[in-house]
Amino acid sequence: TGYITIDNGFKNTGSTKSSITFLDGELGILRYRGYSIEDLAEKATFLEVSYLLIYGELPTEEQYKEFEYEIRTHTLVNEDMRKVFEGFPVNAHPMGVLSSLVSAMSAFYPDSYDSNAPADTEMHIIRMLAKLPTIATWSYKKSQGHPVNYPNNELDYCSNFLNMMFALPVEKYEVDPVVSKALNKLLILHADHEQNCSTSTVRLVGSSQANIYSSISAGIGALWGPLHGGANQEVIEMLEAIKADGGDTQKYINMAKDKSSGFRLFGFGHRVYKNFDPRARIIKKAADDVLSKLGVNDPVLEIAKTLEQAALEDEYFVSRKLYPNVDFYSGIIYRALGIPTNMFTVMFAIGRLPGWIAQWKEMRENKEPIGRPRQVYTGPTHRDFVSMTDR
Ligand code: CMC
Questions:
Q1: Which one, of 261, 263, 221, 262, lies nearest residue 238 by Cα?
Q2: 382 is an active site residue
């Protein structure tokens, strides 16, 4: 085994070449297909960015219309999937439900999974983008004891999602453009992030030529973890705990510094960014904008700012180059949009979907070999079997 190098956590191992996302962790630069995240978040729609990630170029007007039309006309989900969904308990975590239902899509839409049939692959891609928001809203509706809303294909992607989330059959509901614009921005900021844990999972599962639904369902499972996308839920819960504790941010800073506490400052630190996460910068500004436009006064925003400042001035965080990441302020915006805490990571999944798809597609098109890391064995050498009566 002398030839095998161990790199736990793949801190210094490249798994692939990729032309999708560029990230410079020292300089805090993030670009999708060469376009800066700042530009895209300000000027593009989420579907434009999805097209860019998946097909490599920004769409022309005609391409965009066709792409959007395809997605709009596939938003309905097979009605029998609802029966699968109805079997879940009311308090099931929406991430567990999402990952299960995406996996179930492989049973409901079993057309050829063969990557040599591009039309089929295309259809799977459209279906996933179209149906994920529909499925995601079911969990919320169930938690409220309300009937689910069917998609409304007159609406754009973000407004359709908001309508399915918040409209009730008994009263008029109109999507607030401030809310749909904010959602559009958040989804773009989450759309891809090169070989992170969930994306690597999608590529690894897909490398066995498993179908795209199974691959992405596995990615959703990886995203759920508190060290990855699940951090956005943890952040709000942490801020709430600080608030309940009388706003004592220093106590939490001290706890995060104390390794024996097992506590980490959620929304802080990143494997690649050793400087400000550019997404966090945009989101922090957006949080201020959105809350003031919506007239929301959320005391946890102040707590978040105090906590951030204290950490940025603390030797422990400075010396380890720990800065706020994408998850630090996003929950505060989601909350102002009316999205419940246990749905935050689901929002991340909806945003990350085009990235997962693009990375899965790239991996298949490049005909990458099956992912199969090696190990260094550390267990016992040969032992003779001992029968149960002699143990
Ligand atoms: N609070 C306290 N200490 C920290 C934190 C934190 N949030 N993050 C890292 N450290 C310390 C860590 O203990 C280690 O210290 P030492 O060198 O003394 O052993 C040092 O900083 C380096 O950390 P690491 O764990 O080796 O770094 P990593 O690259 O393996 O982990 C991370 C990256 C994001 C998992 C980690 O920073 C973390 O757990 N952060 C909190 C969870 C979080 O916010 N996750 C979201 C990540 S961003 C987007 C996403 O994926 O969703």
A1: 263
A2: no
285: CB partners within 8 A, 6+ apart: none
Pairing of strands 35-36, 21-24: unpaired
Give the span between the Cα atoms of 344 and 324, in whole angstroms.
17
H-helix or E-strand spanning residue 96: helix 94-108
| Centroid of ligand 1 to alpha carbon of 42 (angstroms) | 29
How far is residue 132's CA from residue 217's CA, in Å, rounded to a whole number? 11
Structural contact between residues 32 and 20, judged by C-beta atoms closer than 8 angstroms? yes
Look at the alpha carbons of 70, 31, 359, 342 in this order and tell me if their dihedral is positive or negative. Answer: negative
**pLDDT tens for residues 153-198?**
999 999 999 999 999 999 999 999 999 999 999 999 999 999 999 9
CB 278 within 8 A of CB 286: no
Distance from C-alpha of 158 to C-alpha of 184, rounded to nearest angstrom: 6
- Cα Dmax for the chain: 76
Out of 74, 190, 193, 270, the active site residue is 270
Identify the DSSP state of 324. B
Q: Is the pLDDT of residue 1 over 60?
A: no
Lining ligand 1 with CB less than 6 A are 9, 196, 227-229, 231, 256, 264-271, 320, 322, 325-327
Residues 6+ apart with CB under 8 A from 294: 176, 178, 179, 336
Check: complex ipTM more than 0.85:
yes
At 79-94, the pLDDT tens digits run: 999 999 999 999 999 9
